[in-house]
Design brief:
By secondary structure, the protein is mainly beta. The chain has 1 helix and 9 strands. The longest helix has 5 residues.
């Protein structure tokens, strides 16, 4: 899924803040908040935020579509994680630039059947 989303782009680290617990007691309910530093104007905004997991049965967790009407590039949700793994956030900007952030999460009780 990562290769499909990224294609030939070279994602750049930075400008993404991920609030995710370092340790999740229960993988069935893992809260996450993602914020991308963007002016969210008509010419410079985040158009999509992709959330991926590296060890779940299905890597694609969610995609959030945004526009300048959102005013801020910030989303909040929860997800299930099967086991200890990295969570990858990809942000796609209106001009085609792609940003990336990777955060490790230790899962004590898995939340996905494998």
């Amino acid at each position: 899924m990562f290769a499909k989303l990224v294609g030939n782009a070279a994602p750049v680290e930075g400008k993404i803040t991920v609030d995710l617990p370092e340790t999740a007691d229960n993988g069935n309910f893992v809260p996450i908040t993602i914020a991308v530093d963007s002016p969210m104007t008509e010419t410079d905004y985040v158009s999509a935020i992709h959330l991926l997991s590296t060890a779940n049965p299905h890597a694609h967790v969610a995609t959030f579509h945004l526009s300048p009407l959102n005013a801020v590039a910030r989303v909040q949700s929860r997800m299930r994680l099967a086991k200890t793994q990295d969570v990858i956030v990809l942000a796609v900007k209106s001009g085609g630039e792609m940003l990336i952030s990777t955060t490790g999460v230790k899962v004590l009780i898995g939340g996905c059947g494998i």
